[in-house]
UniProtKB/TrEMBL annotation, chains A, B:
Family matches, as CDD domains: APP_MetAP (cd01066)
Pfam families, alphabetized: Creatinase_N (PF01321), Peptidase_M24 (PF00557)
Domain Creatinase N-terminal: 12-157
SUPFAM superfamilies: Creatinase/aminopeptidase, Creatinase/prolidase N-terminal domain
Name of this protein: M24 family metallopeptidase
Signal peptide limits: none
Residues annotated as domain Peptidase M24: 164-373
Organism phylogeny: Bacteria, Bacillati, Bacillota, Bacilli, Bacillales
The species this protein was found in: Sporosarcina quadrami
Record-linked InterPro entries: Creatin/AminoP/Spt16_N, Creatinase/aminopeptidase-like, Creatinase_N, Pept_M24, Peptidase_M24B
Length: 396, 396
């Protein structure tokens, strides 16, 4: 059932321990579900309760700890021995008196690490401020160190098997985009288009199925294209409007996001022009991707194009992508933006998303790419331009 | 575009302010997206970055603050005046140096509340331990108070308009369940069943569309029914296995969850018996629901049935449900369990989910219910029993 060999998981743990030592940690408490998955294989929709993977520099296997009803999921999905799968009592769930961290602190005491240097993922979505306070109260002698992104930084270079999963995700993304473009037309409801996209993303291909993407398909239309994160409504598409489609294929939790912009009817001059500039900039940025270049250099290539046309963009134009759980498929490490000096290396993967949003419209056209030994491979495969569905032209 | 009248939003804010005063707060910083939606109408998939709704006891309107590209979404989806929609600079996103809370603290200073009593949703998924630390460092003179669940407790009694949305969600849940039961059969892949369910949940009905549920359809099968939160794989269903289907219809972010258990082929005696006990217990619990009863009493009604058969269950058998965003549709307030003395009142809504999980199998059959003026209304509508698809019998 595991997505990778036990050897690959061990290699990831070794890389994690090396970073723990560099940063002076004896213990690392992992609460980011993507990082838990990366190191243990754990996969279940249980991150809405407190759960954790504990890494100890002096133990071979991590310890998984979570809710009793999810411990069986840990047995099914991880490579860990059963004695390393623990659970806290059920009366700790959504309780005003007891907190899972009370129990977890006792486990750490029993193991004998209550006074050690403990890394915490301080910026993890599923490590609440309250959980942090509870740990501090229960472990007054521990030295806590912010370990945010420690594992994320190990994840940034993918193995060949990981790349294979992202390739499959990219194929699924293409299928979803095809369906989106085919479905969107005058009189069709946004929710029905989203439904078709979801079906295709989850079904996948005959050879491999789809997994749920960490973000739902985003479908802003008309004036709402000025803001990228609106989800669908019951509204029907009208002719003469622009629709942005941002979606991701997902396979075994690996993502390949892609965005396209569709014009229903003849696009306005500004949408047409913006799209051309955006594609020109994206192409130049893709050409700038090669091992040894920095993220900042790639962004400068993009910026050189848009500034030629008098456009400024303050948001980043890309970010590292891979394993994800809701609410995000980004890895939160390298960003393609000014000031990011991350050096590109082979098998890094990025979502290059040069969205341009103005007061009353926006355009997004994006690709998921891989840094190769010598340059850049675009993993997503779809016509890289403004898509125009002009029914009048078709009728003629 | 708003789901409710401005008067309804104002009434919710008033209820919130009353609780703030009771708990000695001048300011409340809301980071739970469901609570943000409840008070402002805000709806967008932007909770993966820091964002917030600020409530002040001495101001009429809240302030929304988030990312620049999402401020337009706030203009589209909330009832707030534009001057109350603020954004932080883009270089605060996923940065090692700058944190959105640095900016937010300055806004609070400018408003003149930096030394006031400030409520924080300490247990919110999207208020990280790091965000909390940053606020503390930037506002050394503030008095922080844990305001977890303050707004959730206002949400527990629904208005008639909210009940209407949950009714629609329940209709969508029934459509999804029908499709699930129809789709699951020998040789069909789990991912293709999930795809069909997703399409129906998102498409909704001709009269009203579906929204994305906060949790994806959960489909453990065979031995994996012993653990409830596994998601689908590419595996094909075999004959003679049990499948649990847990899903929710969603409309305008309001949820109606429902679970059923399906036997492909003739079920084992233990699955059949467990299902009967479960339905008997669920029916007795539903009969115990009425205004004035406590959550604990309802759980005792359920417990009295299963203990008759020698079964113990340590997890709760229900919880308050309503608005939700990933990763959860539960409201985290009242639970149908021993020790919960919440008094039931008309228009409270619960997901009654008496799952029974053993070492190598499990059964779930659940309903979403509403407390009425005199008793209980079951909102979901589907045959309340183990569903058996025995192809051999059909062939005879």
């Amino acid at each position: 059932m595991n997505s990778f060999t036990v050897e690959e998981y061990h290699a990831r743990i070794t890389q994690t321990k090396l970073r723990m030592q560099e940063q002076g940690m004896d213990v690392l408490l992992i609460t980011d579900p993507a990082n838990m998955n990366y190191l243990s294989g754990y996969d279940g929709w249980s991150f809405y309760v407190d759960q954790m993977l504990m890494i100890f520099t002096d133990r071979v296997q991590p310890i998984w700890i979570g809710r009793k009803m999810d411990a069986n999921a840990a047995k099914v999905t991880t490579w860990l021995n059963e004695e390393n799968i623990l659970y806290y009592p059920e009366d700790h769930i959504h309780s005003q008196e007891k907190h899972p961290m009370d129990f977890i602190a006792r486990v750490l005491q029993d193991i004998g690490v209550a006074s050690r240097r403990i890394g915490l993922e301080m910026a993890s979505y599923y490590f609440s401020a309250l959980a942090y306070e509870k740990l501090k109260v229960n472990l007054p002698n521990a030295k806590f160190i912010n370990a945010s992104l420690l594992v994320n930084k190990v994840r940034i270079i993918k193995s060949d098997q990981e790349i294979e999963y992202i390739r499959r995700a990219a194929i699924i993304a293409g299928i979803g985009m095809n369906t989106a473009i085919a479905s969107i037309q005058e009189g069709v409801r946004e929710c029905d288009v989203a439904a078709n996209i979801f079906r295709d993303l989850v079904s996948g291909t005959e050879s491999f199925g789809g997994d749920y993407p960490s973000i739902v398909p985003l479908l802003p239309a008309g004036k709402n294209t000025s803001t990228p994160h609106l989800t669908w409504t019951d509204r029907q598409y009208t002719n003469d409007e622009v629709v942005i489609i941002e979606l991701a294929g997902c396979h075994r939790r690996y993502h390949a996001p892609m965005a396209r912009t569709l014009s229903l009817g003849r696009p306005s001059e500004e949408v047409l022009e913006t799209s051309k500039i955006l594609v020109e900039g994206l192409n130049v940025a893709i050409e700038a991707v090669k091992p040894g270049a920095t993220c900042e250099e790639v962004e400068m290539a993009w910026r050189s194009v848009i500034s030629k046309y008098g456009i400024e963009k303050d948001s980043r134009m890309g970010y590292s992508v891979g394993i994800g759980y809701p609410p995000d498929w980004g890895e939160h490490t390298a960003s393609i933006r000014s000031g990011d000096l991350t050096i590109l290396q082979p098998n890094m993967t990025f979502h290059m998303i040069p969205g341009l949003w103005f007061d009353d419209f926006g355009v997004e056209i994006s690709e998921t790419i891989r840094v190769t030994e010598s340059g850049c491979e675009v993993l997503t495969d779809f016509q890289r331009e403004l898509i125009i569905k002009d029914q009048i032209e078709i009728a003629m």
